[in-house]
Amino acid sequence: MNEYFFDNGHKRENTNCVKYDLRKTVFGNESLIPMWVADMDFATPPFVLEAIQERLKHPILGYSTRGKAYYEAIIFWLQARHQWTVESSQVSFSPGVVPGLVMAILAISKPADKIIIQSPVYHPFYSAIKDNNRQILENPLKNCNGNYEMDFEQLELLMQERPKAILISNPHNPVGRVWKKEELARLVEICYNNKVIILSDEIHSDLVYSPNQHIPLLSISQKAVEIGFCFMSPSKTFNLAGLSTSYVISQNAALLQKYNQMLENFHLGQGNIFGAIALEAAYSLEGGNWLNQLLIYLTQNIEYVRNFIGQHFPQVQISPTEATYLQWINMESFQMSDEALFKFWIDEVGVGINEGRIFGTNGSGFIRLNIAAPFTIIKLSMDKLLAATKRLGY
Fold this sequence. Notes:
- Strands 2-10-9-8-7-3-4 form a seven-stranded mixed sheet, sandwiched between helices. A four-stranded antiparallel sheet has the order 11-12-15-14, with helices on one face.
- The chain is of the alpha/beta class and 394 residues long.
- Helix 4 (68-82) runs parallel beside helix 12, helix 5 (97-108) runs parallel beside helix 6 (124-130) and helix 13 runs parallel beside helix 15 (375-392).
- Helix content is 42%, strand content 14%.
């Protein structure tokens, strides 16, 4: 079994990297520590890079298809990591999870149809609905002293609006929840009874910390199968966001056919030759070994930030990070406006963060912090936070 190390930093400047090369554009400061965009500052696993390099030995990069090995890798991974059995006929391609969501929305709804989201939530959910002339209905999560729960009572009331679908984040970005089987089962029951399609974004499904366990939506029940889609990818898990590695699963043949027709309408089914190769290499026994070691490292980073803030800023609350490498931090105790809080992190701390309000109005006063970086960077960011607050008298 190979051993992997995550302490080594890699310079990403001047590689057309969103996280680093857009700091000046986004923050007005090209030297701050970027802890915003949700990719990792760890190298893509060597066995993935080697698979791509092996393919590059062939001099022709023409039109390609996804072969048997591609589907077998997905089937293996979902069974090994999530104890979920799927068939190749139930899997389709998407150039990304958000494009997949958009195509599914277009496939199963009409303009002006209403679609539910559970805020605070990954901000492209909003544009995926609004930019395609659908209406947003909000079913805000309940913040129970930092622990978030679905509000099923309010969801039942929203059903009077006759929504067409609901988008869920499973595990949840940004609040870090891993939805339990009973929570998903109740959601499925409500949606099934009201003929509402569930679109489940499961891109963070592999980044789950023990003792929590990811439950794929479609594994809940036959009712879930009849009304659901899962959108998945190895991109977050193995740091492959620059490749087209996403896929869509529906075990309802009629629903999947609607999605596939939309994929065909936009001529987006070709994909990226290296994305398929990367997926096959990542979804392997060695991929599982690498991931297990990554999760240990990320857990250490998460706990360091939690303990540091608990020690120096006991009034600041961090929601339990059951999954993802994103920490959801309540900074309302600083009594700053959202504009002032953002300016504080950028100009005084020197760390680029995501403003909580972009995830919904109930994210006001929060920040989202990406801790998928070498520990030295995590420690430096916390030291800079402490120094800034001391300097300003907080």
